[in-house]
Write a structure and sequence with these properties.
Layout (H helix, E strand, L loop, with lengths): L1 E2 L4 E4 L1 H14 L6 H9 L4 H18 L4 H9 L9 E6 L7 E8 L6 E9 L7 H19 L16 H25 L7 H12 L7 H9 L6 H9 L1 H4 L11 E2 L6 E2 L11 H10 L11 H18 L11
Parallel strand pairs: 2-3, 3-5
Antiparallel strand pairs: 1-2, 4-5, 6-7
Length: 325
């Protein structure tokens, strides 16, 4: 076990071994491990040999300074130290797996929950220290927010009546907002270059395309502001136009179609100008719908196609109108 100033830090042996292997080949002047490794291979007892290998790689992990970036990022977030029981650094196999996770379990010995932090990282990431430090700072900012009572974190967002696809859309919006707020704080601390603002603004515009005019002002609210709250992020994710002070019109991009309930960028331009028989068909299926509410192009096309099919069928001999809905 390796200790930070306050937070118990544990490195997964496979992570340590691979990081040392990579660093050893990146830094020829630091070679010399092979001779020591051969001595351990000569130990007959497998359990003792495994322990000796773990100790050998850990000593070289320290000698090569591979844990310094991780300790630095952890020590910068002092809020974490008294609130987390242990931190584990675990080997990730691909970039998409990298990140930080917080696990909370009841502690039988006290009323306080027992929190464990797990950081998944590829060993090769340590070879690019600036990039690894920026990544760890970003991930640990998420964890610090989650543990800060002022943030008021909730582990799940409320479900919507739009179904799983719309729920995922809300989560994606929330993620972009949170990342925006963290990026802004990192820039002000000098942890990220100012150029990050432009890249983050592009992500914000993609997530909130329904705010073409207000996007930059809304972005600045999160990027330039102090730590937001979970409640504030969630409110904006669920109702961007309302949070931006704009009326939520049915034809706005990313609003939900009142028929299929899916978010859409493409609403029927003028639902009130649909053919009378199409409006009547929609009204039969959706008794509370009115043309002023609008509908997405896909639903309008379905009803247009349906009416064309009915018209064609009516020309057939023996067609019975009452048999078709």
């Amino acid at each position: 076990m390796i200790m930070t100033r306050e937070l118990p830090l544990h490195f997964d042996p496979p992570f340590v071994e691979k990081a040392v292997f990579l660093a050893e080949h990146e830094r020829p002047s630091q070679r010399g491990l092979e001779k020591l490794r051969n001595r351990v291979y000569q130990v007959a007892d497998p359990d003792r040999r495994e322990k000796l290998f773990a100790a050998l790689y850990l000593s070289w992990f320290e000698r090569l300074g591979l844990g310094q970036i991780i300790r630095r990022a952890l020590n910068e977030q002092t809020l974490l130290h008294p609130l987390i029981a242990n931190c584990y650094i675990v080997c990730a196999t691909q970039a998409s797996q990298e990140g930080a996770e917080l696990f909370v379990a009841p502690d039988g010995a006290s009323a306080a929950p027992r929190r464990t932090l797990r950081v998944l990282l590829r060993p090769e990431s340590l070879l690019n220290a600036p990039s690894a430090l920026a990544f760890l700072r970003h991930e640990l900012f998420h964890i610090a927010d989650m543990l800060d009572p002022a943030f008021g974190y909730e582990p799940a967002l409320p479900k919507t009546d739009g179904g799983p696809s719309y729920d995922k859309l809300i989560v994606d919006r929330y993620r972009v907002l949170w990342d925006t707020a963290i990026a802004g704080r990192m820039v002000r601390r000098g942890w990220l270059p100012a150029a990050v603002r432009h890249r983050q603004l592009e992500d914000f515009r993609l997530a909130f395309v329904m705010l073409p005019e207000a996007a930059e002002a809304c972005f600045a609210r999160f990027f330039d502001g102090e730590q937001p709250s979970h409640k504030e992020l969630a409110a904006f994710a669920f109702d961007p136009r309302g949070a931006a002070g704009e009326p939520a019109t049915p034809s706005s991009a990313h609003a939900r179609c009142p028929l299929c309930k899916f978010p859409t960028h493409a609403f029927e331009p003028a639902a009130e100008h649909l053919a009378a028989e199409i409006i009547a068909a929609i009204a039969r299926d959706f008794a509370h719908w009115r043309p002023a509410q609008g509908l997405c192009v896909q639903c309008a096309d379905l009803y247009r196609t349906r009416q064309l099919s009915l018209a064609a069928a009516s020309a057939l001999p023996g067609w019975n109108h009452s048999s078709v809905r």
